[in-house]
Amino acid sequence: MSAADGGNYASGRLPEELTIPGWRVALIIASFTFSLPGFLNNAQASLALGMNQAVLAALGAGLILCAGACLTAVVSVRTRLTTYTLVQRSFGLWGAALVNIVIAIIHFCWFGVNVSFFGDAMVAAAQDGYGVPGNFNLFVIVGSVIITVSTIWGFRTLDRLAMVAVPFVGVILIAVCVAALGDNPAPDFGPVAAPPVPMSFGIALSSLVGGNLLTVAAMPDLSRFIRTERGAVSAMLLSFPFCAPVIMLVSALIALATGQTDIMKLVVAMGFGLPALAMLVLSVWTINALNLYSAGLSMAATFPRLKQWAIIVIGGAIGGLFALLGIINSFIPFLLAIGLIIPPIAAIYVIDAFLTFRDVDETATVPVRWEAIGVWIGSLAVTLPAMQLGWTLTTVPALDATILAASGYLAVLRLRRPQVVA
């Protein structure tokens, strides 16, 4: 299944003859769990919490993500609609435009994070292969241009290549883990005295959840291809609860054995050489092409007068700028922000699917559904300052945002019950 499959049904129901078994989607989700941003997130959490607490946080994150993904996947199997269509149905035509702009900006931020890894890899390759210092900013600019152009002209090839390149990151991480334990077979599994990013268990859990929330919210784009609801639930159970603790275990072993969170420096220092760096660069390339393509697709549907290639170019430029401004240095705050922005969106369209639009396939015909917009913005108005002040219901900001938005939206629907479509 490629990203282009089902493209003729982007705003309507997917035909049953295009559906596939759930395990195939589970493999796709699992393959993207082993990513460079995922390693950085897990490594920083493990240095702050220590091995036991970090793995427990990852298990908790996997279960939370699985629960959310089960709901969004079941909704998509019942409706066979894309994320864009579900959001449009819940937020209205212009309300969905606002949501999609925010989601596109998040995609561009992810582009900046990943192209930062590209710059680091190229600097390491220049040093390891030619013994010359590389210019990070120059590599980021060149990488942004190359990835953007390849997304426009060759996305289908990159989409297929991603299914091969991204799992190889997992292989490289495991190889680095084995080498790290070989050099330090008995590392201290407790938290380090001065972690790069100090964090509590709740903050670590929220950042681990935030790293995959965009995947959960946009799950219908993949899961609508799953044949049955049982297959959708099985696919989610086979992916997040299993993969999250495994990648945390590998990342924590590497970070605690070496004290290092920069995978590029580790690959060079351990002598894996240019082939391993090339594979890491390739994985970043393909994932960023997917980021640009997804953002371009939703924005082109939102603003049909804009060409998709123009949106991709603009997105590549914005993402590259984020990298130059140092978004990688604010990685954990970025993930925490995602944990507050995305859950209310998914909660609202899931609740609508079960209550407001039950047994109804039509998309939105109103410009704005103010109840959805109001709950989303209202939840952000509460959770953003609450996180800054350290106020929390569950110690996990992402979970707080989900509970607040879901309960608030259910209350609003109850007050507006005569207008609910049944």
Structural account:
This protein has 16 helices and no strands. It is globular. The mean pLDDT is 84. By secondary structure, the protein is mainly α. The longest helix has 48 residues, at 136-183. α2 (36-49) runs antiparallel to α7 (201-210).
Structural class determined from secondary elements: mainly alpha
How many individual helices?
A: 16
**Gap between N and C termini, in Å?**
34 Å
Strand content: under 5%
Low-confidence runs: none
SSE inventory with pairings:
Elements: H1 22-33, H2 36-49, H3 51-79, H4 83-91, H5 93-130, H6 136-183, H7 201-210, H8 213-217, H9 220-223, H10 229-258, H11 263-269, H12 273-302, H13 308-324, H14 331-356, H15 370-389, H16 397-415
Based on the model shown, name its key terms:
16 helices, 422 residues, single chain, globular, mainly alpha
Provide a brief overview of the structure:
The chain is mainly alpha-helical and 422 residues long. It is built from 16 helices and no strands.
